[in-house]
Amino acid sequence: MDDLITAAEAAKLLHLHVKRVQHLARSGQLPATRFGHKWLFSRSKLLASRVPSADLDDPMGALEISARNRLRGRVSSIVVDGVMAEVRIQVGDQEIVSIITRSSAERLALGVGDEVFAVVKSTEVMIAKGGRAAP
Questions:
Q1: What Å distances lie between residue 133 and 91, 125, 128, 130, CA to CA?
Q2: Tens-digit pLDDT profile for residues 78-131
Q3: Is residue 77 part of a domain?
Q4: Rounded distance, CA 80 to CA 91, Å?
Q5: 112 closest CA partner among 87, 95, 92
Q6: Which one of 40, 41, 43, 51 is most buried, by most CB atoms within 10 A?
Q7: 72 with 65: CB under 8 angstroms?
Q8: Tell me: the pLDDT tens digits for 19-74?
Q9: How many other C-beta atoms can be found within 10 angstroms of the C-beta atom of residue 76?
Q10: What's the rounded Cα separation, in Å, for the pair 113 and 100?
Q11: Domain for residue 32, yes or no?
Q12: How, if at all, do strands 115-120 and 69-81 pair?
């Protein structure tokens, strides 16, 4: 009984959002027991199980971020220059270029051919169109 923890404690242990932990429990992807309206988890079973950091259907599912624009692609090139790294991501027939810190590229262990997500978060998006200006 000392081994049982709450969803909030499980979330902290797994470095996931509590709602994500509850979803994984409901779907049977995490070993858990329903007790009334709450989920209880065995700490030892959680530590022993390999909880995926991402679902196969939604690889970003475990990430709790506010950005809605997530573009799946493959790293096509990485150019490191000093403390910065230019990462090119092929998304369909388009390419996105991201400038990140060298340490971020190293921490993510990015390599050419890796499947990644370009996560776009912006306060403003401008739209331009060629041709004459409207009167």
A1: 31, 19, 11, 9
A2: 999 999 999 999 988 999 999 999 998 998 888 999 988 888 877 677 777 777
A3: yes
A4: 21
A5: 87
A6: 41
A7: no
A8: 888 888 888 888 899 988 899 999 888 877 655 444 434 555 555 566 667 788 89
A9: 15
A10: 18
A11: yes
A12: antiparallel
